[in-house]
Amino acid sequence: MPEITALGWFHTLIGVLALGSGLYTLCRYKLIRSSTKSGKLYLLCTLVAAGTALGIYNQGGFGVAHILAILTLLAVAVGGLAEKKSIVGSLSPHLQAASYSATFLFHMIPAITDGLMRLPPEDPIVARIDDPLLQGFYLAFLVTYVVGLTLQMLYLRRHSSTPTSTA
């Protein structure tokens, strides 16, 4: 795997900050919302991470990571619209939860891939993208997304009003 560039380091650090703030936000508030400080930080870092991912071409050209970055940008846009404009009426909070939570999934896929293909530097854990260990992680992340989203939908059903606290 090629050496990590300055842009790659910046992207990685912003991505780690996004994951940390996103995990905190989901644990504390059950949903990612731009109305909380931690949710706002998560969304900002997510946008920066997706934008910088579009400038990284260490694998020889446009690839899966770039597609995930575009999907992330689209998910943030859809979630933001659903949060601010109620684009699908009473289902808007559900669309917002699905969209913003999808961005967390989109963070995890390249994070685990890059981590396992780079570490340890002398002998990375996996050498190929089709390694069964990576495929297992991808499946686990998808299952976690579905379970987490289901819990969020149940939470939204029980709590129809939005909290006004910030973190």
Report the major sheet.
Answer: none
User: Can you count the beta strands?
Assistant: 0
Q: State the order of secondary-structure elements, H for helix, E for strand.
A: HHHHH
Count the helices. How many? 5
Rg (CA only): 17 Å
The total domain count is 1
Q: Into which percentage range does the β-strand content fall? A: under 5%
Shape: globular
Query: Runs with pLDDT <50, length 5+?
Result: none
Derived from helix and strand composition plus strand pairing, the structural class reads: mainly alpha
List the helices and strands and how they pair.
Layout (H helix, E strand, L loop, with lengths): L5 H24 L7 H17 L10 H22 L6 H27 L13 H27 L9
Helix pairs in contact: 1-2, 1-4, 2-3, 3-4, 4-5
Short description:
With 167 residues, this protein is mostly helical. The chain is built from five helices and no strands. The protein has helices spanning 6-29, 37-53, 64-85, 92-118, 132-158.
